[in-house]
Amino acid sequence: MLLAKRNLEFTGTAQSAALQFSNPPQKFKGEPMASDFRPKEQLPALTNRIVETYREINTIHHLGHCPLPNVDAVIEIGQDLKEILYPGYRKREGLQFGNVVYHVGDLIHGLHDRLSQQITRALRHEYRLRKGLHCGEDREQNLEASGQEISLAFLETIPKLRHTLAQDVQAAYDGDPAAGSLDEIIFCYPGLEAITVYRMAHELHALHVPLIPRMLTEWAHSRTGIDIHPGAKIGPSFFIDHGTGVVIGETTDIADHVKLYQGVTLGALSFPKDEAGNLIRNSKRHPTIERGVVIYANATVLGGTTVIGANSVVGAGVSIYRSVPPNTKVTVEEPSLQFRLAS
């Protein structure tokens, strides 16, 4: 295994790196000064022990000279893409048809360069892992050209993305009486935020870009509490109301005009394994949701063969493990409630 075969060179010593700890910290006005710095004498030895774990456990570090995609750079790319998808709602104000072409042209030019770099890094890392190569042993592969081609192919999807997102925004407005305007939805709705990032990540996933699609959707997940795998297939006019706790698995298929509420899980029943006990990947594990379905809060729909038929309604708190015919309402039997005077 490549990760187990890494031959790492550590230059310098932990002691020299930790010498800075032996100097007393700067005292700020009004701040009491500690009188005894002897406890800090153990910090160089602690640094040595931490670095030694890098040698012992080489599966959760990436030390060397072959850079991975950069999280901050990927997030910045996502922000600039939203600036293009929703012009006038984000960073740049005062846009109009007289100047928007220059603004978008500048963004597209920069995005192509930065996205090409990050995609190339992801492609190169995946290639090394697949071939069992060390850093620098893959230079004969012209992955920079591939990164540029994929970047351009992705940017070409932006007009289509805007048409789809316009339908998502309208679906949110049509489906929520609390929405005062389309502007409010674009500014304020976490469901639209998660769907927007998912749709751009899905296009990259469809172009077989490693790592970056998941980096984007997990960024949205951390901001909204909505977890959508970029591999899921979701039709237009999709609305997630409230949204916190929604989970949509990798092989989920969702048709158009579907509405989900908070806490809905579209997940897998189990994970089949091969004869060696390894997980079987790339199989259909998550449900199919047909056109016009509404799934209320905290409902769970599991299984790759489970189909929720068109125009069906799944009530709050329901757990479904088998298919539901079209035009069906599924609810949990109402529990028996008891009322008594408070003491």
What's the end-to-end separation, in Å? 67 Å
**Total DSSP helices:** 9
Query: Helix proportion of residues, in percent?
Result: 25-40%
Kindly report the spatial arrangement of strands forming the biggest sheet: 1-4-7-10-13
Second-tier CATH architecture of the largest domain: Orthogonal Bundle
Helix/strand-derived category reads: alpha/beta
Strand percentage lies at: 5-15%
Q: Looking at this structure, what is the CATH superfamily of the largest domain?
A: serine acetyltransferase, domain 1
Largest sheet: number of strands, sense, barrel closure: 5 strands, parallel
Ranges with pLDDT <50 over ≥5 residues?
1-22
- Quantity of strands, as a count: 14
What's the gyration radius in Å?
26 Å
Mean residue pLDDT: 90
Shape field: globular
What is the class of the largest domain in the CATH system? Answer: Mainly Alpha
Count of discrete structural domains: 3
Order of helical and strand elements: HHHHHHHHHEEEEEEEEEEEEEE
CATH topology of the largest domain: serine acetyltransferase, domain 1
Chain-wise SSE layout:
Elements: H1 14-18, H2 43-56, H3 71-85, H4 100-131, H5 143-155, H6 158-175, H7 182-188, H8 190-206, H9 212-224, E1 227-228, E2 233-234, E3 239-240, E4 247-248, E5 253-254, E6 259-260, E7 265-267, E8 288-289, E9 294-295, E10 300-302, E11 307-308, E12 313-314, E13 319-320, E14 329-330
Parallel strand pairs: 1-4, 2-5, 3-6, 4-7, 5-8, 6-9, 7-10, 8-11, 9-12, 10-13, 12-14
Helix pairs in contact: 3-4, 3-9, 4-5, 6-8, 8-9
